[in-house]
Amino acid sequence: MAQGSTRRRDFLKVAGCAALTIVGANNRVNVAFIGVGRMGARNIGYAAKVPGFRIAAVCDVYQPALKDFREILADPSIDAVCISTPDHSNACMTVEACRAGKDVYVETPAFVHVEEGVKMVQAARKYKRVVQAGTVERSSASVQRAREMVKGGALGEVRFCRAFEAAATDGGVHVIDILQFAFDEAMPVSVTAQGSTPDTMLATFRYPGFVASYESRAGNTYGTAFHGTKATLMVIPAADPHVAHWKNFLECIRTRAKPASEIETCVRSTATCVLAHTAMRHGMTLNWDEKAWKLEVESL
């Protein structure tokens, strides 16, 4: 633990120095990184590969000498923040960043409770912020092509889908997001699940028109399968889409267009997974009310 903490502090010192030495043109977007653990550190690397971003600040609980989260939000020179903190704090920080007038890149899982996701969407809408979620597969050319095939009828009528990944990863958000992306953000009508978190889980989702399953277990590969009446399509993203995802974020900051993983899409996928874990813990079937969801999201 001590050795890991030392390496983390050393990295933060280097990152902090790098932020001071990067000098960009006036049209660069100043981005601060909040939380620089495994994904936070990677996001710094991805953003650094996108011309147009300037790494302006780094903050983390392991290095008080670097900027505090509240200082970053109060700094008018910061245009955007990347939030890669533990799951339970992502939602609060996203809402506060939107309130402070910052655009946001937030990692997954974006929240722990469905109500938090609603607040994230409301904050993005109310403060007119670009909020890109870390469901990066939407920036993958192979996933985009798969979506076109599903929507275009190349597989026939899709009646069953299967999402699967190794145990103890991200709770299913990424593979479920691929599924819901292909069906225009549809959410399940009901959810049942069984297993033993975090090692093994099998969830069943009933969507309008088809049924899907999610399987998490040791030794699994990673992907989403679409089973149609004409053909079956297995989607396993091959290329790393992270840099493309950051490029999309930059473009949307400048144009104010919706990003590839606009926050509501991630909230829908995350909420689906949260419902599955809740159903498993309590041994019950949970139902989803789409109309009630829309009313809650739209009420500011």
* Ends apart, CA distance between termini: 44 Å
Q: Radius of gyration over alpha carbons?
A: 19 Å
Order of helices and strands: HEHEHEHEHEHEHEEEEEHHEH
CATH architecture of the largest domain: 3-Layer(aba) Sandwich
Task: Summarize the SSE layout with pairings.
Layout: H1 2-21, E1 29-34, H2 38-48, E2 53-59, H3 69-74, E3 80-83, H4 87-99, E4 103-106, H5 114-126, E5 131-133, H6 141-152, E6 158-165, H7 173-182, E7 190-196, E8 200-207, E9 210-216, E10 223-228, E11 232-235, H8 242-255, H9 263-282, E12 286-287, H10 290-298
Write up this protein.
The chain has helices spanning 2-21, 38-48, 69-74, 87-99, 114-126, 141-152, 173-182, 242-255, 263-282, 290-298; strands at residues 29-34, 53-59, 80-83, 103-106, 131-133, 158-165, 190-196, 200-207, 210-216, 223-228, 232-235, 286-287. By secondary structure, the protein is α/β, with parallel strands linked by helices. The protein folds into 2 domains: 2-137 and 242-262, NAD(P)-binding Rossmann-like Domain (Rossmann fold), CATH 3.40.50.720; 139-238 and 270-298, Dihydrodipicolinate Reductase, domain 2, CATH 3.30.360.10. The strands form 2 sheets. The protein has a 7-stranded mixed beta sheet. It has a 5-stranded parallel beta sheet with strand order 2-1-3-4-5, sandwiched between helices. Helix 4 (87-99) packs parallel to helix 5, helix 5 (114-126) packs across helix 10 and helix 7 (173-182) packs across helix 9. The longest helix has 20 residues, at 2-21. The termini are far apart. The model is unreliable at 1-7 and 10-25 (pLDDT under 50).
